[in-house]
Design goal:
alpha+beta, two-stranded antiparallel sheet, 3 helices
């Protein structure tokens, strides 16, 4: 268990190893939830958005056009942990 110190401003700094455990890097956000009995849960915040935020992000980056079959094959390999 890690003990943290509360500053006069009521702030707490999470130690580097805790941030690494959460997978949080500088500039990213964390979520804190209040639980009963004075407990908290802390987790890395998940980015919010929709497919519209990434649609076309690779447009113009390559001349290759993938077929549906090629995309499905790449997706299947990704889920299986293959390259």
């Amino acid at each position: 268990m890690t003990t943290l110190t509360v500053t006069a401003k009521g702030q707490v700094t999470l130690k580097k190893e805790l941030l690494q455990h959460l997978g949080v890097k500088p500039g990213q956000k964390i979520e804190v939830e209040s639980l009963p009995d004075g407990q908290l849960t802390v987790r890395a915040a998940r980015p919010k958005g929709s497919w519209k935020d990434v649609y076309g992000i690779l447009a113009g980056k390559t001349d290759k056009v993938a077929t549906i079959e090629e995309m499905n094959e790449a997706i299947a390999k990704g889920w299986a942990g293959q390259k």
